[in-house]
Amino acid sequence: MRARLTLAWAVLAAGVAFGGPALANEKAEPDPANSQYWGSIRNLMFGDREILDGKDVIRVYLAMRADDASTVPVAVKAQIDQTPERYIKTIYLLVERNPSPAAGVFHFTPDSGRAQVETRLRFEDYSHVRAVAETNDGKLWMDSRWVKAAGGCSAPGGKYRVPAALLGKMKFRFDDDIKYNEPNLVQVNIRHPNESALAADFDPDAVPQFVRSVLVTYAGKEVMSAEVDFSLSDNPTFRFWFVPREKGELRVEVEDTHDNRYMQSVPVMEGGPLPGG
Amino acid sequence: MMRSIIRPAVWLATVTACLAAIGAVAAAEGFAVSEIAPGNYVHYGVHEERLPANLGDQANIGFIVGEKCVAVIDTGGSLPVGKTLRAAIGRVTDLPVCYVILTHVHPDHFFGAAAFLDDRPQFVGHAQLPRAMAARARFYVKTLQRDLGDLADGSEAIAPTLLVKDEMVLELGNRKLRLRAWPVGHTDNDLTVYDEKTATLWLSDLLFVDHTPVVDGSILGFLAVVSELAAIPARHFVPGHGRTDMPWPAALDPQTRYLEVIVRETRQALKDGRTIQEAVDTVGLAEENNWVNFELFHRRNVTSAYTELEWE
Question: Which residues from chain A sit within 8 angstroms of residue B305, using beta carbons?
Answer without folding.
Answer: none
